[in-house]
Design goal:
single chain; about 230 residues; alpha/beta; Rossmann fold; 3-stranded antiparallel beta sheet; about 30% strand
Length: about 230
């Protein structure tokens, strides 16, 4: 694990993978982490009350979510104790006011009974270019995650090579799926929700949110159809 300061901000690298970016004094990163957090903007403020983030890392997504939902109860799950220590020591994690759970995301999903307006799944294993989802994702992991989403809420999954498998899986669980592509990144963000969700409404919500303005030009939204 490595923490380094660059012209872009403070970076966290874990096993050769760029895991977090922190720009002190700013909520956003101007990059993919803003795009992962962005779907919460589709919900009205009164529906941004409780958020579950699986794969906390340095807190980049959590920081944007906090800016978009200042009064939300945010629960962040991270397996790696060294990553959590770095997040606290170098990335201002404790200032975000979130409930931090140190443990395996699958175990947390198995025992968690609360429901959340948004569940973010941002879990990867492996190193460098070989980073991938663990064996329990997408099945049964996305099913377990979907059970924790409140009625009318969103399930958001950050994917790489697993985009197609994850998309097909969540499409069975929720009536509408939107994919967000991010320029210059291989990440594909899969957003699953109720029938009102589509690419146009999600694009409009992100475009109209001042917190997300800097990342909006890099995003492309498309409604997935079977």
């Amino acid at each position: 694990m490595r923490v380094r300061d660059t012209s872009a901000g403070r970076e966290l690298w874990v096993d050769g993978t760029f895991a977090s970016l922190y720009r002190p004094g700013r909520a956003t990163t101007g990059t993919v982490w803003d795009a992962i957090a962005a779907p919460i903007a589709w919900l009205p403020p009164r529906r941004r009350r409780r958020v579950l983030l699986l794969g906390l890392a340095g807190g980049s997504v959590a920081r944007v979510v906090r800016a978009l939902a200042p009064r939300a109860e945010i629960v962040g799950v991270e397996f790696d104790a060294a990553v959590l220590a770095a997040a606290r020591d170098h990335f201002g994690l404790d200032a975000l006011g979130i409930e931090v759970v140190a443990g395996d995301a699958r175990d947390v999903l198995a025992r968690e009974r609360r429901r959340f307006d948004v569940v973010y799944e941002d879990v990867f294993v492996g190193a460098g270019d070989a980073v991938h989802k663990p064996a329990w994702l997408p099945d049964p992991g996305t099913t377990l995650a979907a059970r924790r989403v409140a009625a009318g809420g969103l399930l958001v999954t950050n994917t790489l090579d697993e985009t197609v498998a994850v998309t097909h899986h969540v499409a069975v669980l929720r009536p509408s799926v939107v994919r967000i592509d991010v320029a210059e990144y291989d990440n594909r963000i899969v957003v699953a929700g109720g029938p009102e969700l589509d690419a146009a409404s999600l694009r409009r919500a992100v475009r109209n949110d001042p917190v997300l303005a800097e990342v909006m030009p890099r995003l492309r939204f498309r409604t997935w159809r079977a």
